[in-house]
Write a structure and sequence with these properties.
The protein starts with 8 loop residues before the first helix and ends in a 10-residue tail after the last helix. Strands 1, 2, 3, 4, 5 and 6 form a 6-stranded antiparallel β-sheet that branches. The protein is built from 5 helices and 6 strands. Helix content is 11%, strand content 15%. It has a domain at 16-183. By secondary structure, the chain is an alpha+beta fold. The longest helix has 11 residues, at 261-271.
Length: 316
């Protein structure tokens, strides 16, 4: 009895291109970097060797998926990418210090990492690497005990910028007329400490000196300006005034024997020296001189005395 199946032309083409365990035909392919394991989220990191001088070194197990439009579209190829620039020496006179790790320079260089910078000490993480497009060179390796049908080896990795997919007749995926050209991957910027500047960075502008705050004492602490000294009134010594001179007797004064006792007392009072003035605490201006006492009025004798008659006290 016959069995009925649904024919799949695409599956036949993929099988002819190396389906199953058959290796991918050698050549260059546009491939995308994917996690090591399907459904995974990262790239596995392993020792570079089980033993020997390279056992302490580390490698990345990278999976490349061949993109549509190529004869082996959808197939996966693996590569062991070193995480170091040089293998351990093996006695090769061509490389006495050890052979360069070519895939290290090619893989990270295709991602824009400055692998020729001697100051480079850090590599990008998986978040930056995964999903990037690169061009891989695939080589077929003959059968061995582990791979009786043969296997593949990635012998070269380069940037996908400007790479045009070479369509093979009947290749699965995107038609030949619509074959895409890979865009340049964004360049990776290493940490600032690893960037080797082509020219010394310009010296930063000198910072402006900080403004010094001017301290202002509180109002209550500010001392008031000293008051001008007040002049002290000094006592002024008043020179003693000489007693006024006795007023001269008016012309025609009476002789003493003709002066009555009352008139004599008045004359004595007028001729007595005035008391010296008391010092006064005033300005330094001299005190005005006292007004002179009025001159005594001449006493007119009795008409009978003017004729030479006897005066007072005369006994008739």
């Amino acid at each position: 009895m016959t069995r009925t199946i649904q024919h799949d032309a695409t599956a036949a083409q993929e099988a002819a291109a190396g389906g199953g365990n058959r290796p991918v035909p050698g050549g260059k392919y546009l491939a995308r970097i994917l996690p090591t394991r399907k459904g995974g989220t990262f790239l596995e990191e392993k020792p570079a060797a089980n033993d020997g001088p390279n056992a302490q070194k580390r490698i990345l197990n990278v999976r490349f998926e061949i993109q549509p439009g190529q004869i082996a579209a959808g197939r996966n190829v693996f590569a062991r990418v070193p995480l170091f620039p040089r293998w351990a020496p093996k006695g090769d006179p061509k490389y006495p210090m050890g052979a360069p790790a070519f895939l290290y320079f090619q893989f990270f260089g295709s991602l824009g990492v400055p692998v020729d910078n001697p100051a480079l000490t850090e590599l990008p993480d998986d978040q930056f690497i995964l999903g990037k497009l690169v061009v891989i060179t695939v080589k077929e390796v003959g059968p061995d005990d582990r791979n009786p049908d043969g296997s593949n080896e990635v012998t070269g990795i380069e940037s996908a910028e400007g790479f045009a997919i070479q369509q093979a007749a009947g290749a699965p995926g995107v038609p030949a007329a619509a074959a895409p050209q890979a865009a340049a991957p964004p360049a990776w910027t290493p940490p600032v400490a690893q960037q080797q500047a082509a020219a010394p960075a310009p010296a930063p502008a000198p910072a402006a000196p900080p403004q010094q705050a001017v301290w202002t004492p509180p109002v209550q602490q500010q001392a008031a300006p000293p008051a001008p000294p007040q002049p002290v009134a000094q006592p002024v010594a008043v020179a003693p005034q000489a007693p006024p001179a006795a007023a001269p007797s008016p012309q025609g004064a009476m002789p003493p024997w003709m002066v009555t006792p009352q008139q004599a007392a008045e004359v004595v009072q007028q001729q007595a020296p005035a008391a010296p003035p008391q010092p006064v605490a005033v300005a330094a201006a001299p005190a005005p001189a006292p007004a002179p006492a009025p001159a005594p009025q001449a006493q007119q004798g009795q008409p009978w005395a003017a004729a030479g008659t006897p005066g007072v006290g005369t006994t008739f």
